[in-house]
Write a structure and sequence with these properties.
By secondary structure, the chain is an alpha/beta fold. It contains nine helices and 13 strands. The strands form three sheets. A nine-stranded mixed β-sheet has the order 4-1-5-6-13-12-11-8-9, with helices on both faces. A two-stranded antiparallel ribbon has the order 2-3. The protein has a two-stranded antiparallel ribbon with strand order 7-10.
């Protein structure tokens, strides 16, 4: 039996959604996802790519929080649209697995954090839609959303909405971000609070209203958390939410 003292000192366990390489038929992980959680005193592990609830259920119970990572495009059918030729590769298995984990986090108010694809997936889960390809569908797109290496450099700024939890955390109205995506939030899902916008009007950060910590950002803190204070604060806030 775990004592009360051990419970107080136990580091939070955070399940990380795996990335899938269809060409090699393999799972993989960007080291930064693991490293940033470790840096903030969490214990990360990579989840299997599976939809069997008899497997996912025990894994979910092990976790104090779930990290929804970047990766393939979200299947357009999930937001009621036909797939366009400009849509990238999708992974239905991952969509179904993440649906299970998000619904459980939402139901139980368990902390969750989405990055890049993560904000897009969470928006879809909340009833929103996506631009399947910014270059062909978002006509006022006039800044660089597709970062070129090195991956930790700033490629554009975002404006943080006053009064939002993100604004209270960072205490600033503007930060530079490292952004790498060709899809984005189109119609915002019900129950989502937009917390930041790009200079050309795209939603760049959200919070699920009424939940202790279900946040998502369009940029990549896993690549710049070692040098960027804003990214460190956001990751730390997630890990601390998983601790409570």
């Amino acid at each position: 039996m775990i004592s009360k003292e051990e419970t107080k000192t136990r580091k939070p366990v955070i399940g990380i959604v795996p990335l899938f390489d269809s060409e090699k038929d393999s799972l993989w992980m960007v080291p930064g996802y693991m490293d940033m959680i470790c840096e903030m005193d969490g214990v990360p592990f990579m989840l299997p790519l599976n939809t069997d609830e008899s497997i996912l259920g025990p894994l979910y119970e092990m976790c104090d929080g779930i990290l929804f990572t970047g990766g393939q495009d979200v299947t357009p059918a999930l937001y009621g649209e036909e797939r366009l030729s400009v849509c990238g590769e999708t992974c239905g298995l991952r969509d179904r697995m993440e649906t299970y984990f998000f619904k459980k986090c939402f139901q139980d108010d368990k902390p969750a954090f989405g990055i890049c694809r993560g904000i897009q997936f969470i928006n879809v889960m909340m009833g929103g839609t996506l631009y399947q390809d910014l270059s062909s569908e978002y006509k006022i797109c006039n800044i660089d959303h597709h970062l070129k290496p090195p991956d930790d450099r700033v490629c554009h700024e975002v404006c943080i909405s006053a009064g939002t939890p993100l604004h209270r955390l960072l205490q600033t109205e503007r930060i530079g971000v490292n952004s790498y995506h060709h899809q984005a939030v189109r119609r915002l899902g019900d129950g989502l609070l937009p917390m930041a916008y790009s200079q050309d009007g795209l939603v760049e950060a959200v919070q699920v209203k009424g939940k202790s910590f279900i946040w998502a950002v369009q940029w990549h803190p896993e690549f710049n958390f070692k040098t960027d204070e804003s990214s460190r604060k956001i990751v730390k806030a997630f890990v601390e939410a998983c601790t409570n």
